[in-house]
Amino acid sequence: MIGDEIHGLAAWSPWVPLNGAEPPRLPGVYLARQGANGPMVYTGMAGERQGEGLRGRLKRYTSGRALASGLGEAVFDRALADPAWLRERLAEVEAGRPMRATDWGKAALSWADPHVCWAVAASGQEARALERAVLAVASEAWWNRAH
């Protein structure tokens, strides 16, 4: 559930698991929560970059190629802070099954089980303004680095 203050900022899509999400190829803002019913933990935006918008941004995360930016980085940071998750990765290495960095990113996403919803914006500039408005809601414990 989106808090009333954030809900009133835009027309949000229903929540869906990040893996399998099919947002539009338009600029907008996305929210992420940990698990199907967990707390909201991250907000991000996508502009008009290469005509891919929200879909392109969220697909970068599911591919494991966004370990060092946005939601991918936030999820990876928290997975690395979980001793059990790290022990699993170490056991894979010790068993002779080391993973590539993108696979570590996918494993971190699986650990976090992110669910997302989004709101479309008319432009990248409007998306940035909406993202700032969402981040200004102090009642959420955002994983965003700048927050």
Tell me the layout of helices and strands:
Blueprint: H1 4-7, E1 16-17, E2 28-34, E3 40-46, H2 53-62, H3 70-80, H4 83-94, H5 101-112, E4 114-120, H6 124-135
Antiparallel strand pairs: 1-4, 2-3, 2-4
Helix pairs in contact: 3-5
Protein architecture, described:
With 147 residues, this protein is an alpha+beta fold. It has six helices and four strands. Helix 3 packs across helix 5. The mean pLDDT is 91.
Task: Describe this protein with a few key phrases.
single chain, 147 residues, four-stranded antiparallel sheet, 41% helix, 16% strand, alpha+beta
Largest sheet, order of strands side by side?
A: 1-4-2-3
- Computed structural class: alpha+beta
Gyration radius, in Å: 16 Å
Q: Tell me the fraction of residues in β-strands, as a range.
A: 15-25%
| Number of contiguous helices | 6
In short:
By secondary structure, the chain is an alpha+beta fold. It has helices at about 5, 55-60, 70-80, 85-95, 100-110, 125-135, and strands spanning about 15, 30-35, 40-45, 115-120.
